[in-house]
């Protein structure tokens, strides 16, 4: 495994019954980068992310993370954080307890230290202290994303997975969340794998973008290089009138 890569996927194939999702996928995630993964609905973006994390196993091929094959017992739990599309907060727990949960699961920290860490994570994502005692039902969409991000960062991961992080947010909240991720990445220097369909997020955040189509990665590289691909899906996604307005802004 190349020491510059956090994750390497080689010849990965995924089938659900007779349905083929991925076929011969090859992709690297480089240390310190923000890699965006885009594709049409049903192209298997989230499935690919779940395979990178180890939540699902591909039907064939090899995945390595931090220098070791995932199927050899590699533990990403303490080295990776995940923000799922809906936020996936526990509705019966307060904001405080949602963020504290991964810290408590370690069973190495006392409650005083956990309290300090939860307050620090809340501040890090731009939330006031009083938000700690709210239930998820009382939060706006933007606040849910920030709490979910705080929980994903609770263990100070080296690798952060974001699944459609701006989905469901209005343009102002989406821009604010994107700016927050960019600032945290600059400060903490973690690696990010970002699943998105939002061209503004791709333009503002991603160092590289990988395009899933025809069950494989059909283009990967900096956005200004990928847009030159002649693959039909890439052309539809990046070269339409709407896309050009965003990318040229």
Structure described in brief:
This protein is 37% helix and 26% strand.
Topology:
Blueprint lengths: L4 E12 L2 E12 L3 E6 L5 H9 L6 E6 L2 E2 L10 E4 L11 H12 L4 H14 L16 H12 L6 E5 L7 H18 L2 E5 L3 H7 L2 E6 L2 E6 L1 H4 L5 H8 L1 H7 L2
Parallel strand pairs: 3-8, 3-9, 6-7, 7-8
Antiparallel strand pairs: 1-2, 1-4, 4-5, 9-10
Helix pairs in contact: 2-3, 2-4, 3-4, 5-6
Characteristic key phrases:
37% helix; six-stranded mixed beta sheet; four-stranded antiparallel beta sheet; 249 residues
Describe the 3D structure.
With about 250 residues, the protein is α/β, with parallel strands linked by helices. Helices cover about 35% and strands about 25% of the residues. The strands form two sheets. It has a six-stranded mixed β-sheet. It has a four-stranded antiparallel β-sheet with strand order 2-1-4-5, covered by helices on one side. Helix 3 packs across helix 4 (about 140-150). About 35% of the residues are buried. The mean pLDDT is about 90.
Strand content: 25-35%
- Overall geometry: globular
> Helical proportion?
25-40%
Order of helices and strands: EEEHEEEHHHEHEHEEHHH
- Work out the radius of gyration: 18 Å
**Main sheet attributes: strand count, strand direction, barrel closure:** 6 strands, mixed
Report the strand count: 10
Mean pLDDT: 90
